[in-house]
Inverse folding.
């Protein structure tokens, strides 16, 4: 089955700097790659997603890139703000389930 | 804005007891899921459900677990005989598209097994 790895597990950045989180997946049949943000004690919420027919997608300060050949995808957050502090999960899906990575705890230091 | 609702928000139970966690998915969604998150760990897939049957389940979803859609609105997760290691946050989710669209999560049900 699908296995999703994610690095780093923790990340601290200064406010205004960029943050990059990288993921790999194992199942070449996966074709949908969402990113979820989970604030402490809250539910995961989708922040951006990308499908396998697209290499890059951007939404304001957030961008995601996908390399299907290498089975890598990454999240880029620019101009980080304290409210970006949360746990970020990448995920991969090829059909009837979405498999999450282990998460990255991002701390943005004011 | 419609959202997935879950009850109870927190349940404490004794080891060996049966627990039922309830979810009301978003009304026009057809695909339903249960996920589990042990404190501080990742969100783990348990089961997906469509057209009144399980479509996929993980190794975690053993014979102690079952799901049901008893009526047109509720989606339940039953744990027959709880173990200490079942203590976790259980999230219900629903989606319009199967496996390739946004999962809308409920706020979760925290299960504590003593």
């Amino acid at each position: 089955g699908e296995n999703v790895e994610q690095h780093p597990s923790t990340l601290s950045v200064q406010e205004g700097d960029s943050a990059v989180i990288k993921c790999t997946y194992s199942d070449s049949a996966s074709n949908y790659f969402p990113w979820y943000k989970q604030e402490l004690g809250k539910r995961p919420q989708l922040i951006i997603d990308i499908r396998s027919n697209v290499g890059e997608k951007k939404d304001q300060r957030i961008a995601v890139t996908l390399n299907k050949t290498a089975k890598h995808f990454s999240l880029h957050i620019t101009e980080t703000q304290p409210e970006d502090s949360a746990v970020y999960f990448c995920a991969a899906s090829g059909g009837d389930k979405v498999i999450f990575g282990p998460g990255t705890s991002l701390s943005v230091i004011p | 804005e419609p959202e997935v609702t879950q009850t109870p928000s927190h349940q404490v139970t004794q080891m060996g007891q049966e627990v039922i966690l309830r979810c009301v998915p978003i009304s026009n969604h057809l695909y339903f899921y249960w996920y589990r998150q042990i404190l501080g760990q990742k969100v783990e897939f348990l089961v997906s459900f469509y057209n009144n049957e399980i479509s996929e389940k993980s190794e975690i979803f053993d014979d102690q677990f079952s799901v049901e859609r008893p009526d047109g609105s509720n989606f339940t997760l039953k744990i027959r005989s709880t173990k200490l290691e079942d203590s976790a946050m259980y999230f219900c989710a629903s989606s319009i598209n199967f496996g390739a669209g946004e999962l809308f999560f409920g706020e979760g049900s925290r299960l504590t097994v003593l």
